[in-house]
Amino acid sequence: MVKKCKYCNENGFIDKLGRNFQICRICLSKKMSLSKLKNPTRYWLGKKRGPISNEVKEKMSNSHKGKKLSKETKEKIRQINLGKKLTEETKKKLSIISLNQFKNGMPEKTKNKISKTLKGHKGYWLGKKQTKESIIKRINKLKGKKRKPFTKIACINMSKSQNGKKHTEETKRKLRDITIANIIQTRGNMSVNTGKHETQIIDFVEKQLGIKFERNHKFYGYFIDGYNYEHKLAIEVDEKHHFYADGSRKKKDIERQSYLQNKLNCNFIRIKDGYYHKIVIRRKNDDTKNQKMV
After folding, report:
1. What percent of the chain is helix, strand and coil (3-state, nearest 5)?
2. What pLDDT does residue 184 have?
3. What's the rounded Cα separation, in Å, for the pair 105 and 95?
4. Pairing outcome for strands 267-272 and 214-219
5. How far is 282 from 275, CA to CA, in rounded Å?
6. CB 3.0–4.6 Å: which of 66, 234, 238, 277 could bond 242 by disulfide?
7. Cα–Cα distance between 85 and 101 in angstroms, integer?
């Protein structure tokens, strides 16, 4: 049903979006002065808008399909929104809407739309670097604030996205260097855990070979128990945690050894911690026997 004008009882005008008003164009032009005609939005100041029906929403969405905003309009919108902050009520409303929409994760239709829109898109920060002032401001804003914990759905999606992916050796090395630097910044120094018999075994090997090893030296983010630069020789003492229940050596140690051998062009000597009792203690017992005989 077409709405009629309040004043002349004629049909009200209909705009491009299909909205029907209770006033005709003639009465509206009479009602509004010349100053209001320049700025017709003033007519609606102080008046509350009723809820938009689903039909009107569909018409609005169809009218905007295929249209793209120009750079000038984007800049105008950006300048209008500069300095504006959302209230807590609007933030709560947006969070409730997003939770209701994506309870079971993002649907495939929206994913396809996002992928289509982002094809060939270049990010704003590509080739750009933040200034020191902007970094300091960002850090100061985050001081004293705690990050909200991730939801269960977010944790599941993050784990699924990382399944089957493996870091390259360069990224692993970078991550190791970052963790070491963070430990040094927070604690001042970094102490490496040494085995129970590590120092005694390496001392015994030094006496036998007549070579000195540098202890717990860092190479490409890894710490080696002992290393000699002249002979390019590395020594590692393997405790129980370096082996599986079968007695085989763990894959991490094998990958680590191969990576360091390729980088340093060195040879490795690996000694089990269990051999300490067989080699060192027997040697001590033989020395004490010889002293008694003398």
Report:
1. 50, 10, 35
2. 78
3. 15
4. unpaired
5. 10
6. 238
7. 24
| SS3 at position 4 | strand
The tokens for 125 are: 């920060």
Question: How open is the CA angle 172-176-181, to the nearest 5 degrees?
Answer: 150
Q: Name the DSSP letter for residue 83.
A: T
- C-alpha pair distances (Å), 285 with each of 36, 54, 195, 201, 280: 108, 93, 23, 16, 9
Quote the CA–CA distance of 14 and 23 in Å, as a whole number: 10
pLDDT score recorded for residue 84: 83
| Domain residue spans of the chain | 1-47, 198-280
What is the helix (H) or strand (E) element at residue 243, kind and residue range? none
Per the listing, tokens 């049903």 go with: 1
| Spatial CA neighbour of 98 closest among 38, 153, 23 | 153
Cα 27 to chain centroid, rounded: 59
Say what the pTM is: 0.43
3 state SS of 167: coil
Task: Look up residue 10 and give its DSSP letter.
Answer: S
What single DSSP character describes residue 40? G
Eight-state DSSP code of residue 63:
H
Angle made by CA atoms 84, 86, 92, in degrees to the nearest 5: 175
pLDDT of 292: 47
Token code pair at residue 247: 């007695």
**d(C-alpha 58, C-alpha 252), whole Å:** 58
**At residue 108, what is the residue type?**
E
- CATH architecture under which domain 198-280 falls: 3-Layer(aba) Sandwich (3.40)
The H or E element spanning position 215 is strand 214-219
Residue with tokens 């082996």: 243
**Which tokens belong to 180?**
């070491």
Task: Please give the single-letter amino acid code of residue 107.
Answer: P
Residues in a beta bridge with 238: 272
Q: Which residue has 């009107």 as its token pair? A: 56
222-228 and 233-238 as β-strands: parallel, antiparallel, unpaired?
antiparallel
pLDDT, residue 37, reads: 46
